[in-house]
Amino acid sequence: MDFLIWAKGNYFRKSKAKDASFSRKRLDLKPESCQKTHPLSQLASGLSNQKQLLLTIPELKAFCIIPLCISGIATTSLTPLKTQYLPGLIMMLKNGFSLVSCLFLLTLTTGCASLVEVTAIEQFSKAIESGDLKSLKHHSTMKFSKVALRDETSLDDLKILKIPTGETTIVEITDISENHKKVVAEVGKNKKKLLYELKRVTKTGEWVVDDIYIKQKQQNLTVMKSVTEQMDLLLTVREFVSAWEKGNRDDILGTTDGDFKETLQQLHPAFLAKLSQKVAGESKSSKKRRPDAQLDKNIAIIRLPRRSGEMVISMKLQDGKWKATDVAVESKVDGNHISSAKKQAKMLLAVSNFLDAYNKNDKAELEKYSASQFFNGSLDFGDLKLAALPQSHAAAADYELRIENNLANFVTHNDGKMVNLSLVKLESDEIDVPEKYLIEEVTLFQDQGNQQITLTSLFSTRAITMVFSDALSKRDMKILDFSSTPDFSNRVWKQVEPQLVAQLPLDEITEPGFEILDIQFNGAITKVSARQGNLPVTYILREHLGQILVDDIELDLKGRPSSVKATLEMMVQVQNYAFSMHEQNIRNLQRHSSRDFNELVWRQVDQVPQTSFNIPELLMSDLASLEINENAGYSRIQLGSAQRGATVLFKKQQGQYVVDDIMIHSDTVASNYLSTKKELRMSMAANAGTLKQSTVQATYTISNETVPDSSAAPQAVSIPEIQPTAFELPQQEP
Hints:
Blueprint: E1 2-7, E2 10-16, E3 22-27, H1 40-46, E4 68-70, E5 73-75, H2 86-96, H3 98-130, H4 133-138, H5 142-148, H6 154-161, E6 168-177, E7 180-187, E8 192-200, E9 207-218, E10 221-226, H7 227-246, H8 249-254, H9 258-266, H10 269-280, E11 292-296, E12 299-305, E13 309-318, E14 321-331, H11 341-359, H12 363-368, H13 372-379, H14 392-397, E15 399-404, E16 407-414, E17 417-426, E18 436-446, E19 451-454, H15 455-474, H16 477-482, H17 486-491, E20 514-522, E21 525-532, E22 535-544, E23 547-555, H18 564-582, H19 586-591, H20 595-600, H21 615-619, E24 623-629, E25 634-640, E26 644-653, E27 656-666, E28 673-675, H22 676-686
Antiparallel strand pairs: 1-2, 2-3, 4-5, 6-7, 7-8, 8-9, 9-10, 11-12, 12-13, 13-14, 15-16, 16-17, 17-18, 18-19, 20-21, 21-22, 22-23, 24-25, 25-26, 26-27, 27-28
């Protein structure tokens, strides 16, 4: 059916297709037969050759399409006609055209509707094209205006969405209610289909746009996206960036939600202000920002360009509002990346809480924000007044946060001196437990950064030094082992035989009158200068697993290494060797002897051959000198005196020093020195019973002297007995 429409001084032909779509075409028709003086019947007959009737009711503000049926000819309405002709029209309908009246009412509704939808959509589109925000608000609902048009930059974001405008063709109309329609329309040259939600304004009766849905491709799927929702997201992004650029605390908190917001709420204002500056950085002007948003139900990832990179904001739709749950900053110029502002906020919160508790000397609170090893091995018993740390607001003024995996270093300055707080992430096997960061060490830099002092070193150095010195005097092996580094303990204290503890050569470093003179810190190593009686000594302490332990003692004695650890390591080995000879422990003697010594002696006997010298007793003599040559792989220890003593020769074999020979000092022989190897070989030759049954003696030339006549009477040899008193456990008093 064709309709002829009079609008704005022109006639339009309107055709209704089978698919209920409408199109308009302007016609060059003159209303010659539509004069006011013509009666309605003449008007109808005058237009019968055009098969159309035009009718206009001036009192109606909007024109309507009125299809009539006169003499079986399909006609329609809309030209100037005063209300005086209405009674005639009504009489015609009443007298003979009841069917026509029904068609009239039905088509009146359909015709008017199709036109108002086109008008509402085109007015909205023209407002977008002209950039008229006021007109755009007028042709949209209050809900749409408050959400999608709430900011002056709304028109810029509408352009980002690329909403098509231009010629509109209605495809489908769905009446949701009397004042609510859903209209599918083809808009623009490309005839892109959009879904419009229209609502009628109660006061004016005008139809306006309530929302628009645009088809978008996402992960190989075509989905309908609401313009209101997208505009809300884009405007929220602008508000987020603006709030972080200005650094207003309330505005920043208003743009975030969840765990992110809770962490920021607890953060010291100075830290939050500094964090906002680092996150906002130098961004492009608001007109040039073109956010790239990826939406998936109630989650969105937005990428926003910055001068040196881009900002990546994670948002979540909660109660109809988009809120940021995290933000990352990628920098391509200065390298100042922020992988997660939420994680940085948690780290800064840990630093802030730690500094507040430290400056209040509140150890109960301090324990909450410190790693257990750090607190138990330092802060718990330390005097916090010995080292001043900056206040939270001062630390936030200028800081650098360096993050690597689960570790981080917070670097700031206090009175011109650098302070480093090391953080560690607290791991948990439970899924619901939020991540937490603790302070595991604090390092103070002095002397322009050349000297480093950790709080663990500062608080525990003096205490551990005093404890260690006292344990040396008492020969308390448990305390010595507990307060020494694993290297010191494994090389010395764990090697000492229980029966030989009292025989340890510690006289020089156990003189009465121990006094600490000075402490020098250098990172993980601390040097304590002290005086042991009249002898200056230096304790070397090293940090191990959050604890300060004694690693060595240095002293200057002629003929000895400066390292007490190296000296004791060799001396303990000598005393253990003497003890093994006394106890007839051939297995241990083999383990700590060279290959040559084993081939000539220990692998051929079941017990230690007796000699005319008390070798174990000589090995327990006082230390005279010790020489270690690591490059040549040998060591020489002189014990006792030149008249009575021994020189132990060590050889490095498979990375360990082993006994290669023992030279006996004696003024009873011409050379003053005798080889223990030779003496033992002579004893083995004189006492064949000491040899193993299957042993074949190795060839060994003892001397080049003439063998005496066998007929001569043998001389009796006196072999002194070994006195075991030095190796026996002391008797317990009754």
